[in-house]
Design brief:
The complex is a heterodimer. Chain A is 0% helix and 55% strand. Chain A is mostly beta strands. Chain B starts with a strand and ends with a strand. The chains are: A mainly beta, B mainly beta. At the A-B interface, strand 5 and strand 10 of A face strand 4, strand 5 and strand 10 of B.
Chain lengths: 120, 107
């Protein structure tokens, strides 16, 4: 069974940093693109970033470019999101999501999410 | 960026009704479209990918169609478990984007 478990969320002041983690199990982690998707309270879904199987390609939504960095450790079956210069508008539930396979970038499996709150 | 516009934003229906949700893309995305269902406080669940392929385990009352810029999600006979918010998502060009969502509630 595919499992994705996020951690690392919390309350942080504007301008602060946070590192999210996603522990994956139940599939060959190194064979899939991985994504971060977020959802602000009461709002819709927003894709944030993704990373290729070998980590050599990474893509971001414009609003986080230069502030967020996605990375992975295939030996630890883990995905990360380093978030710097956090803003109030980054407040959201952050989901780790796995692609459908063979590079098809829909989100077949999701974690339960970790909540990030940016507030003074 | 590719904009996805869902209509309607809210839909009220009876159990047993046939329900159709439309997703329009601001430019052609071929068939690179997925649909998700999200219930309050829950994780989104994949329903349909590549516009019309149904995800394993999803009830057959759900179907998707369309290509290019216009897509539909149809629920052939609405069940109590189907009251939720539905999102479309394109994966043709970065950044991947979602529609704003369609909330289906009980009439």
């Amino acid at each position: 069974e595919v499992q994705l478990v996020e951690s690392g969320g919390g309350l942080v002041q504007p301008g602060g940093s946070l590192r999210l983690s996603c522990a994956a199990s139940g599939f060959t982690f190194s064979s899939y693109w991985m994504n971060w998707v977020r959802q602000a309270p009461g709002k819709g879904l927003e894709w944030v970033a993704n990373i290729k199987q070998d980590g050599r390609e990474r893509y971001y939504v414009d609003s986080v470019k230069g502030r967020f960095t996605i990375s992975r450790d295939n030996a630890k079956n883990s995905l990360y999101l380093q978030m710097n210069s956090l803003r109030a508008e980054d407040t959201a539930l952050y989901y780790c999501a796995r692609e459908g396979g063979r590079g098809y970038q829909y989100f077949q499996h999701w974690g339960q999410g970790t909540l990030v709150t940016v507030s003074s | 960026d590719i904009q996805l516009t869902q209509s309607p934003s809210t839909l009220s229906a009876f159990v047993g009704d046939r329900v159709t949700i439309t997703c329009r893309a601001s430019q052609s995305i071929s068939s690179w479209l997925a649909w998700y269902q999200q219930k309050p406080g829950k994780v989104p669940q994949l329903l349909i990918y590549k516009a019309s392929s149904i995800e394993s385990g999803v009830p057959s009352r759900f179907s998707g169609s369309g290509s290019g810029t216009e897509f539909t999600l149809t629920i052939s006979s609405l069940q109590p478990d189907d009251f939720a918010t539905y999102y479309c998502q394109q994966y043709d060009r970065y950044p991947w984007t979602f529609g704003q969502g369609t909330k289906v509630d009980i009439k």
